[in-house]
Amino acid sequence: MAFNYKTTAFSASGLAQEAMKKPSLYTSYAIAFVLLAAAMTALVFFVIYPNEFRLQSMVTSRCGSRPSSSSLSSFVEPVTPEPDFRLLIGILSLPDSYERRHLVRDVYALQPDIANARIDVRFVFCNLTKEEQRVLVAMEIMLYDDIIILDCAENMDNGKTYTYFSSLPKMLDGGGRPYDYVMKADDDTFFRLQLLAESLRKLPREDMYYGLITPCLNWRARDHYMSGMGYILSWDLVEWIATAETPRNHQVGPEDKVMGTWLREARRGKNEINMEPVMYDYLEGEPRTCYRHELVPDTVGVHMLKNNRRWATALKYFNATVGLKPSNLYHMS
User: Fold this and answer.
1) Count of domains in the chain?
2) Which stretches of 174-232 are DSSP H helices?
3) CB contact at 8 A, 126 and 154
4) What confidence tens digit (pLDDT) does each residue in 52-111 have?
5) What CATH code is carried by the domain that includes residue 183?
6) Which of 308, 318, 328, 234 is nearest to 272 (CA)?
7) What pLDDT is recorded for position 182?
8) Which of 59, 68, 268, 282 has minimal CB crowding within 10 Å?
């Protein structure tokens, strides 16, 4: 027994010497655990919740004082108020009309934001037919995301407007009503969004037909309709067009006149809003009429801007470039 005891004592002494040479397995586990805990802490504070770490440092840096409301505002998601209404403006275009789309896009982008209203501007045309369109239009979509391509052959009075309105409920099916109003507009019409919005705020949200009544000299005529320069339907009428037989069976003809026929035959669009004289055609080289006259300050929409000169004249009248800042990099004289 004494021999065994000495052998055991000797072995323990050797183990102690070995322990001086390298850490034990338990020590290695402890070190690894500490390093893992430190790494997890750094991950939480610096990667997953960096703002919380910054917020804590802001609080402690003020020696226990509360951070100011301005300091905290950057960590609070802003609450977006529900808009008074939502309007989709669909501007009928052609796939190859790149220059006109860029001009119109700039015109609307430079208009000030409208308080308590959502207005989306989209360009609408039928199927692409050329390889260059597939490339160039794709680039437009990637950059601006403001194009709707309908499943139809390009046309003017052979169902394009019907396809536009009837396709929207399915295209925009996300639950609930996506828009209160939908406009069809020409790409030679300039709408001043602020005045357009103010004219819509208190109007009916159902069974509404808005625009410039034609013929304007006899707007009570049985066969009147809203001018194709740009007219607005309430969303319930858009849904009706998508499902009703009347518009589906009568698509051919002047699109604005056909729209009036649909609504009249179905006894819909009873809330008619006539925007004469603040919606009208540009006056140049033709007689002045109730729907064609000089530019006026309270204009909501002006039509027949068929070339860049007319666009420039109208935009100058309405001070579209008043926000241009002086710079040494350009001069406008």
Assistant:
1) 1
2) 193-200
3) yes
4) 433 333 323 333 344 444 443 444 556 677 899 999 999 999 999 999 999 999 999 999
5) 3.90.550.10
6) 234
7) 98
8) 68
On whether residue 107 sits in a domain, the answer given is: yes
Q: Which residues contact 315 (CB under 8 A, 6 or more apart)?
A: 107, 190, 321
Q: DSSP E strands: which ranges in 168-262?
A: 181-186, 190-191, 208-211, 213-214, 225-226, 230-234
Q: How far apart are CA 167 and CA 198, in angstroms?
A: 28
Express each pLDDT in 237-294 by its tens digit: 999 999 999 999 999 999 999 999 999 999 999 999 999 999 999 999 999 999 999 9
Range of the domain at 254: 85-277
The label of the residue with tokens 């979509």 reads: 141
- Give the residue carrying structure tokens 């849904």: 239
Predicted local confidence at residue 24, as pLDDT: 53
Burial class (CB in 10 A: 0-12, 13-18, 19+), 94: middle
Burial of 278 (0-12, 13-18, 19+ CB in 10 A): middle
Side-chain-facing half-sphere of 316: CA atoms under 13 Å? 6
Amino acid (one-letter) located at 120: D
**What phi and psi values does residue 209 have, to the nearest 5 degrees?**
-130, 110
User: Does residue 25 form part of some domain?
Assistant: no
Q: How many CB atoms sit inside 10 A of residue 174's CB?
A: 7
Q: Whose structure tokens read 């649909």?
A: 262
Residue 134: pLDDT band with limits 50, 70, 90: very high
In contact, 89 and 121? CB cutoff 8 Å: yes
Main-chain dihedrals φ then ψ at residue 302, nearest 5 degrees: -125, 135
Instruction: Identify the residue whose tokens are 């035959």.
Output: 265
In a domain, 57, yes or no: no
- Does 61 map to a domain? no
DSSP run (H or E) holding 247: helix 245-248
